[in-house]
Amino acid sequence: TRTRSSFEFAAKSLGAMTTLVQSTGSSIEKGESVIDTGYTLRAVGADCIVMRHPSAGAPHLMATHLDIPIINAGDGMHEHPSQALLDAVTILKHKKSFKGLQATIIGDIFHSRVARSACHLLTRFGVKITLCGPPEFVPDIATTLVPGLRVTRHMEDALRGTDVVMLLRDGRVAEVAAPNKTRGAADEKFDARGLIVAPGFVDLHVHLREPGQSYKETIATGTAAAAAGGFTSVCTMPNTQPVVDTAEWVSWLRQPERGAVVNVFPIAAATRGSKGGTLTDFSALQRAGAVAVTDDGKPILDDDIMRMALRLGAELKLPVVQHAEDTRLTENCSMHAGPTSFRLGLRAMPGLAEATVVDRDVTLAQQIRESRLHVAHLSTSDALKAVRRGKRAKARVTCEVTPHHFTLLDENVGEYDTNFKMNPPLRSASDREAILVALADGTVDAIATDHAPHALHEKQVEFERASFGITGLETALGLAVTHLHRAHKIPLTRIVELFTSGPARVFDLNGRGSLARGSFADVTIFDPKKRWTFEAANTHSLSRNTPFDGCQLTGKVVTTIVAGRIVYRT
Ligand SMILES: [Zn+2]
């Protein structure tokens, strides 16, 4: 609004005639190319085009095809030159000249077109610029934009001796207000009548497969699937190749070059190589950005190692995530022990293999003050009993449940369908019943997908040789609304809690899972009544190993917003 109206006022006060072309309701919406739009405007007599475009480089493309001036009024996260000019004028109002000035730009420079233009313009006038922010916002390569840029991670350092400070918009919730009662100006209005506007969903358990297995999934494709499923934050599991057991790999996961479209919070390995022998450097991992530690894919079985992990975690306020499986009872097993495994002649895992580990861990968590135990993908009624015992004793014990465990049963494996093979396996009807009760009564803290993509060649094999795991990011909300809300009458507010504030609390993700003023502007807008069919062929994930292909669901994500930017929209 500001850019558009100031260009219009400026043009009109200089005697020019202006016409406004917007993408909505124009031929652009019907698929006309940006170049054709330019030719058309030129043909009807435009002498100059001022252009605001969501794609970086669009004005440049137009300029290479047309012989009239094209003014860039903001292209994607690339540049916003006129805003930089305005900022320069503002500086000159307060300082006599640019000579010898030191300026500091603070905030999300990576995504800021204003920051890029300010760097180009101000350095041209000899201003020395310091960029300040965490690596996700200010990668080290930011200094290569123009000569003389300096990067710092520390606010005090950034402000020392500076003459000018530019604060970028911070991607947080500015205001929550009744309709037509907002005070600020909006870049975009969104009609959400009949829809639910929720805090951005948080998934505590995803396998994005990088580093090392990008044929299954990449951080870019996995987070695109997350955005389509309404998840604005995902916590990545460290069982990659190599295992994420060093601060360097944790930092690597968070670099903008990975192409994540939602927030990625790494969970680091609890033991070196997740081999269960020696604890990793929790403190260094946490400083690099790890939000929890786990050996997921495998349990931390050894009593002493688990005790030490919980102790160290207690000191650092770092949750220890347990993949609860007594592997001494599950070797070579590929599904849950019950009538179906007996019929199919498959070696099978008893529910006890999960419950005994959870039971021991809860006992340890009760003994170690301030320790934080989180049970991953809880799947049995006996494990729930142990979690309840811990919660009653006021130990900080939390747990998550996957959508497939609250929807499917071991019998759904049918005739060796490997898209129903995961670990923990699909369980009995009484286990699922207990999980539904625990989801409703507050025992379960979060719904987590355990999104585990695999390539076709890893699934299209004999059942016992097939990889464990299924994808789950895009079906989680639909399954929750369909099975928990519609079939089992769990209120939508509780379901939203299980996707948002519940998981955010488990890992202390401050400012996530909430829409309170000052929280991160991560928002998920969904239609709780929309009926749709999930098609694996249309997934954003690189892999299609889902048992829910062709599934009729109710409840669909309409728009996903991360830090105030739309990252997915139907
Ligand atoms: Zn696991």
Structure summary:
The protein is an alpha/beta fold and 570 residues long. The protein has 19 helices and 20 strands. It has 3 domains: 19-75, 3-Layer(aba) Sandwich (Rossmann fold), CATH 3.40.50.1370; 81-167, Aspartate/ornithine carbamoyltransferase (Rossmann fold, 3-Layer(aba) Sandwich), CATH 3.40.50; 202-569, Metal-dependent hydrolases (TIM Barrel, Alpha-Beta Barrel).
- Give the DSSP E fraction (strand runs of 2 or more residues): 15-25%
Determine the number of helices (DSSP H or I, runs of at least 4 residues).
19
Query: How many E strands?
Result: 20
CATH class of the largest domain: Alpha Beta
Relative helix content: 25-40%
Please name the CATH topology of the largest domain: TIM Barrel
Describe this structure in words.
The protein is of the alpha/beta class. The chain has three domains: 19-75, Rossmann fold; 81-167, Aspartate/ornithine carbamoyltransferase (Rossmann fold, 3-Layer(aba) Sandwich), CATH 3.40.50.1370; 202-569, Alpha-Beta Barrel (TIM Barrel), CATH 3.20.20. Helix content is 32%, strand content 18%. It has helices spanning 2-13, 34-43, 58-65, 81-94, 113-124, 155-159, 219-228, 247-254, 282-288, 303-316, 339-344, 352-367, 381-392, 403-407, 429-441, 456-459, 476-487, 492-499, 501-506, and strands spanning 49-53, 70-75, 102-106, 128-132, 150-152, 164-167, 196-199, 201-206, 231-236, 263-269, 292-294, 320-322, 335-336, 348-349, 372-375, 396-401, 446-447, 523-534, 551-562, 565-569. Strands 8-9-10-11-12-15-16-17 form an eight-stranded parallel β-sheet. Strands 5-4-3-6 form a four-stranded parallel β-sheet. Strand 19 (551-562) and strand 20 form a beta hairpin. Helix 4 (81-94) crosses helix 5 (113-124), helix 8 (247-254) packs parallel to helix 9 (282-288) and helix 12 (352-367) packs parallel to helix 13. It is globular. The mean pLDDT is 94. Zinc ion is lined by residues 296-297, 323, 376-377.
